[in-house]
Amino acid sequence: MIQVKICDERVTNIYYGETLIEGFIRIDSIPSPEEIPGKIPVMYYRNGAIVYEYEEAPEATDNGTETSPVPMDYGETVNGLIRRKYTLSEELAILRQRDTKAEEFEAYNAYAESCKEEARLLIEKQKH
Q1: pTM score of the predicted model
Q2: Where does the chain show beta strands of DSSP type E?
Q3: Cβ atoms of 74 and 82 closer than 8 Å
Q4: 53-62: pLDDT as tens digits
């Protein structure tokens, strides 16, 4: 027996077993999706049957992570890169004390500049 849980027509869970599960709908079978390059199948339950819609598949990067299908924002990208090393509180403290802790500020500033360059390269790479 196959049962599916539905949220706004989209299949969110599939259960294979003999126990009836509250909130799930019993179905006879699940058809195989069509394989379309660059697309991923999304399962829906409509008019008593399972149907598929296809969404753009996220692109994989060299390190196996997925790239965002939406254009990157330069400011958000720089901020995210800076956050890999400095929390917002740390960054604000360094900026407040830049006159009294010049070496710490110079190290932070060099890192921030490298993040800006990395962000430019990432955004340029995404365009191509």
Answers
A1: 0.46
A2: 2-7, 10-16, 24-27, 39-46, 49-56
A3: no
A4: 998 887 666 6
